Amino acid sequence: MINDPPVRKLMFELGMKKGLEGIALAPIGPSSIAVRKEVKNLADFKGLKIRVLASPFQLELIRRMDASPVAMTLGDVLPALQQGAIDGALATITVFTTFQYVDVAKYVIETDQPYLNSLVVMSTKWLATLPPDLQKIVRDDAAKVSKEIVPFVKEFFAKQRDVWKSKGGVLISLPASEQAAMVAKVASVGEDLSKGNAELNKAVRLVAESAKRNK
C-alpha cells in the first residue's frame, strides 16, 4: 500500500510547509504489545497501563482495548517497565529485541495494530539547488530503494521474532475471534478522530481506500 501513488503523494507532501520533501517510504512492520505479565485474552488488557506515542490515534487505540494509555518517550520505557510504573508498551518486535525488553516484559501479544512505516525526507531548499537531471536521479533512486528494501525488511522482521524467542521471550496471538473483535473495535479510530478536521479526514479516507484496493 505504501507504494500506491495516491498514498505516496500524500506522505511525501506532509512536510512541505516545513520545507521537507518526502522521497522514499519503507515498511517497518506491525506493532505488538510487550507486557510484564501474561495476557491471553482481550479481557486481560483491562486496566493495564500501556506506553504509547503522544498520538491521539494510539491513545484511543489503547483505550478501546480497555487499557490505560501512557504517552512516554522511548528512552523512558525500559526504566518504567523495570519500576512497574507501566505494565507494557506498544511498539514493534524490533524495538523489543534491540532494547532487551525480554528482561522485564517477556510476553509479547502480536496484535498487528498499527502497522508502522518510515518516511525518508530531504530539504526542499537543498533539492532545488540540484540541476534537474540530478534531482531526477535522487528521486528515481529513492523510489527504487523503497521497493527493493521490502523483502529485506520482511526477512529482518521475521528473524527478530526468532531472536525474541531465543532469549526466553514468549509470543502470543489472541484467539481468532478476539483478534477480529479487537480489530472491529479499533477500525474506526482514524475516521472518528479526524471528523473535525477536513484535511486530516480526507487523508484518513484516502489511506483506507488504498488499503481496500491493495488487500
Explained architecture:
- The chain has 9 helices and 8 strands.
- It is of the alpha/beta class and 215 residues long.
- The protein has one domain: D-Maltodextrin-Binding Protein, domain 2, CATH 3.40.190.170.
- The strands form 2 sheets. Strands 4-3-5-2-6-8 form a 6-stranded mixed sheet, with helices on both faces.
- The longest helix is centred in the last third of the chain and has 35 residues.
- It starts with a helix and ends with a helix.
- The mean pLDDT is 94.
| Shape-level CATH architecture | 3-Layer(aba) Sandwich
**Biggest sheet architecture:** 6 strands, mixed
- Residue runs with pLDDT of under 50 for 5 or more positions: none
Strand arrangement in the largest pleated sheet: 4-3-5-2-6-8
Distance between the termini: 8 Å
The CATH class label is Alpha Beta
- Name the CATH homologous superfamily: Bacterial extracellular solute-binding protein, family 7
- Which value, in Å, is the CA radius of gyration? 19 Å
Structure annotation, total helices: 9
Series of secondary-structure elements, N-terminal to C-terminal: HEEEHEHEHEEHHEHHH
Number of E-state strands? 8
Count up the domains: 1
SSE-based structural type: alpha/beta
- Looking at the structure, the CATH topology is D-Maltodextrin-Binding Protein, domain 2
Instruction: Summarize the amount of helix as a percent range.
Output: 40-55%
SS strand fraction: 15-25%
Determine the mean pLDDT.
94
Principal-axis shape equals globular
